[in-house]
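Worked problem 6 (solution included).
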Amino acid sequence: MTAGTVWQVASIAGFLCLVGAYLVNQRGRCRSDSPRYLLANALGAGMLAAYSVAIGEWVFVALEGFWCLASVWALQTRGSRPGRPARGSPPAEADA
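Solution. The predicted structure is:
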């Protein structure tokens, strides 16, 4: 397999990760703050950013790089947002 073919496969896989996550979210099968949605976005955008570097499309490097970093950041801070329990915390008790 040539390097060009590998990059083509990686770009298609990245595209499928992004579009797949979007479609699953739109159908109500996962939330946009779920780990699998964020991971699919991070992986897909990361693969497309790498492909964009390989072909010299710098605007898309910036775009996909931003989405990748935003998804990774959201994965890391997911449990520490105000109004949400931290990861591993017991469920909140209902106020009476």
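Discussion: Residues 3-26 form the longest helix (24 residues).
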